[in-house]
């Protein structure tokens, strides 16, 4: 992820179809690549940072989810956050499975 130097992940949540959402400030388990706990209240830097989200530890049932969403909104949300890449690190859920049903909407050009 990449921020604007002011944005945080305090309103960030992950949602998996049929399982609800896990919030950064409640049950979502996020770590730095060195294994230390990621501080979701600290501003995201303008350079790319890798955040490990442990879905199983967060309470999600792993398998082949219908779809997964990342949300950045709610009270207190501000700034810009860019998700630069997503990678599955488990054989249980592959990246291809996560995005397999994703279809990007492209607005038609105005005539």
What integer is the average pLDDT?
Answer: 77
Oligomer: single chain
Radius of gyration: 15 Å
Order of helices and strands: EEEEEHEEH
Helix content: under 10%
Q: What's the helix count?
A: 2
**Structural category:** mainly beta
Structural features, described:
The chain has helices at 55-58, 95-99, and strands at 2-3, 12-16, 20-23, 30-31, 52-53, 68-72, 81-82. By secondary structure, the protein is mainly beta. It has a 3-stranded antiparallel β-sheet, with no helix packed on it. Strands 1-7 form a two-stranded antiparallel sheet. Strand 2 and strand 3 form a beta hairpin. The termini are far apart.
Quickly list its features.
mainly beta, globular, three-stranded antiparallel sheet, 111 residues, two-stranded antiparallel sheet, 7 strands
Break the fold down into its secondary structure elements and pairings.
Layout: E1 2-3, E2 12-16, E3 20-23, E4 30-31, E5 52-53, H1 55-58, E6 68-72, E7 81-82, H2 95-99
Antiparallel strand pairs: 1-7, 2-3, 2-6, 4-5
Task: Write a concise synopsis of the structure shown.
By secondary structure, the chain is mainly β. It has two helices and seven strands.
